[in-house]
Amino acid sequence: MQTPRLTSHRACYVTGVLFFVAFLTGCGGGSGSAPPAFTYQTSLGAGTSIHVQLSDGTPVAGAIVQIQDHLPEPTGQETREELETGKLYFHGQTNAFGVVRGLCKFPVDVTTCDVLVTSPAHTGPYTFESHHDFWGATAPSARVQFPVTSQLNATVVVEARQ
Amino acid sequence: MRASHRFAAALVALSSVGIAQDFWAGGTPGNRPWQLWGLEQQLFTSSNNQAAQHVANADFSPNLLVQQPTYIDLVWMHEGVSSANHSFGYFTYTETNGSVEIIDRQLMFRSVDWGPSSWTSSGNGQMLSNAAYYLRDSSGVRRLFQPGERVGFFLVYDGGVTWAPLGPYAPIFEWGDPAQPAIPSTDPAVNDLFGPSGGGCLTSLVRFNPGAQRQFDSEGNLLNAIDFKYLAMTHITDPQYRFPDWLGGRDYFYCGFEDTKSPNSSMDWNEFVFQVSPTVAGALDTASNHGYANDPDTDGDGVLDINDHYPNDPDRAFRRREPNSGYTVIGLEDNYPEIGDADYNDAVVAYAFEVVTDADNQIRDTLGMFHLIARGAGYDASMGMRIADLPIATTGTVTLERFESGSNLGLPPTSVSIASLPYEVGRRLDDIFPSTMAALPPEPGSFATNTLSSQIAVAPASCAVRWSFDQPLDPVSIGLAPYDLYFIVKRGTFEADIHRPGFAGFAERPTWLPAEVGPASFLDENGAPWVFEVSTGWKFPLEQVDISSVYSRFQPWVASAGALDPDWFLNVTQGQQANVSGDIATIVTPRPWSILVR
Question: Could you give the domains of chain A?
Answer without folding.
Answer: 43-160 (2.60.40.1120)
